[in-house]
Amino acid sequence: QTSSSATDSNERPDLHIQDNKYPTDQWTNTPDTILSHVGRSLYLDENHPLAITRRLIESQFSAPIFGNYFEKNPVVTTAQNFDVLGFAPDHPGRSRTDTYYINEKTVLRTHTSAHQQAYFQQISRNEKTKPEEVGYTVVADVYRRDAIDRSHYPVFHQMEAAMLWKRPEQNPLSASEETAARIRADLERIPRHDVVVEDPNPTIHPQRNPLQAEHHSEAEVEAVAAHLKRSLERMVIKVFTEGSKAAAASSGGKVDQEPLKVRWVEAYFPFTSPGWELEVFWQGEWLEVLGCGVIKQELLINSDVPNRFGWAFGLGLERIAMLLFNIPDIRLFWSKDERFLSQFRAGQITRFEPFSKHPACYKDVAFWLPQAAAAGGASAAGGAVPFHENDVMEIVRGIGGDLVEDVRLIDNFTHPKTGKQSMCYRINYRSLERTLTNEETNEMHEKVRTQLVNDFSVELR
Ligand code: FA5
Ligand code: MG
With CB atoms counted within 10 Å of each terminal CB, which end of the chain scores lower, N or C? Predict the structure, then answer.
């Protein structure tokens, strides 16, 4: 079966994923087109840009402090992916519009944070045998029902990392100045840099980015945050510098690149506080490359390391690889085209040479939503299926697959008299490998229109 839409029926047979069998149920919404990506392990394929990028980042977070790991099985429990990390029961990330469910209790992990607890427990177990390994990196494939554009793909790769410091067992808060001093000493071992980084907000903001006041002192958190930020800035600068060298080499020494622009943005994650995202200016826009923060102490207490605390981050490996190799479209990472693959060699950073740019063909689809299904509305009374943008994405993905470059909402209005909501999406069809014919584009678009009507009872305009 290659059907793309989530099925609501109980009739779907068990899903076979790697060597395991999973029963399906009402929650199952993972199409075979997504499951077909499981097991590619691109990050282990040494000549693949994702593997080269992984190695480069691992070299910045390496032994003896960091063990470098990967997790091949993407199937985790909802407890691992959400509950343990403190996601509220009604957190939108849990919904079937955002997450690929195998069944009610099992998902394709949406982030590598699903493994945080296991790695903290490992640090605790190895306390005697590997006392200096107080951090880890872990790389894995992750899965999300998400937007479609050149920096979003439903299957992508993350690298998660964390580093912990010991705190006194008795009264850690009263000894926090001593802990902070140890972290600041570690900070001094990370070379400084002279790139100007935009970071307009205070480390701690009482409402937007609070201190975990019952557990941590301001001095400790300032020290951990400084260590985290300098570590990550150094990583991004390394990536940028390697990319620039490659650009200069391929253009006979001319440096045609814009200077590096980086900024910190406040961000909320259920398992960190305070927390941030790091963005890099790339090809005319801010590209979010990672999320990070000071780990919630409850999580550490529940993971056998109550007397430690520290930072964690999770980065998008594709996003970093795009900066490093100047790869313009995230779909390329899955390409089996030799014109792509032959450009990369283990241990070498080179600039990607686009081998073709085929014409784009965009088509719009405009429709009225059935009234009870208004976007963003709570539950759908009267039997109408609630409408979520990710469902449009999933329909388009199922029909167009990698032939769709991006999908954008270009119009959204509510009729002043009837209260009916109208939306218009622009679908940009473009193959990375060849020129699409009019007929095949029309055929795909017609299928999208039909499925929107069938699945959501929209009224086409
Ligand atoms: C997370 O996934 C958190 N687990 C990160 C984290 C770890 C925070 C540890 C704190 C501590 P977020 O949803 O922002 O956060 O995703 C992290 C990164 O994954 C993004 O910054 C981006 O680089 C990448 N990413 C997210 N969605 C996609 C996508 N659809 N395609 C490609 N990359 C993506
Ligand atoms: Mg984010």
Answer: N
